[in-house]
Design goal:
Shape: globular
Number of helices: 4
Order of helices and strands: EHHEEEHEHEE
Structural class: alpha+beta
Helix content: 25-40%
Strand content: 25-35%
Number of strands: 7
Length: 157
């Protein structure tokens, strides 16, 4: 099984959106408040990444099975919407996408990445801890219906 990670062109944002929607569908009706990924539009993604960001697509044998978005901030790259289709989870694709974005950041002279993870999805928290991400902040959603961590990973440029 050959996996290719590549930058998504503006013409491929539809693919990024489709993969994200399919990957996050399992959370519909399960999270309070609902995941923003389920209401994000193609235009939302374009607007978000067009100012110092981008998106990537993971393909297995030419078929899109993963996507993620990133945005360069002052001194770090923010990684978001890491999405892998349920049929392809557990194969290292999520890790490959995170490392791809970290390498891209390193090539741009940035040595830290950050992301946000809901506490109500402990498997995602564990996933990022395995990738050497550490918790630096904890935040509450309105009415404290859920919480999320800001996690970071530092690497050498």
């Amino acid at each position: 099984m050959e996996t290719l990670i590549k930058q998504a062109s503006l013409e491929e944002i539809q693919i990024v959106h489709d993969v994200m929607g399919k990957a996050f569908e399992e959370y519909r009706g399960m999270l309070t408040p609902p995941s923003g990924a389920l209401s994000e539009t193609i235009n939302d993604i374009v607007k978000k990444i067009s100012n110092n960001g981008g998106a990537i697509i993971a393909q297995v044998e030419g078929i899109p099975v993963g996507s993620a978005q990133y945005l360069f901030q002052d001194n770090y790259v923010y990684i978001g919407r890491v999405s892998v289709l349920p049929s392809h989870r557990g194969l290292g694709i999520g890790k490959m996408m995170v490392r791809y974005i970290e390498t891209h950041a390193r090539n741009e002279g940035v040595n830290e990445s950050r992301l946000e993870v809901r506490l109500s999805i402990p498997s995602n928290v564990a996933f990022y801890k395995k990738l050497n991400y550490e918790i630096i902040e904890k935040h509450a959603y309105p009415a404290e219906t859920d919480y999320w961590y800001v996690m970071k990973n530092s690497f050498v440029c």
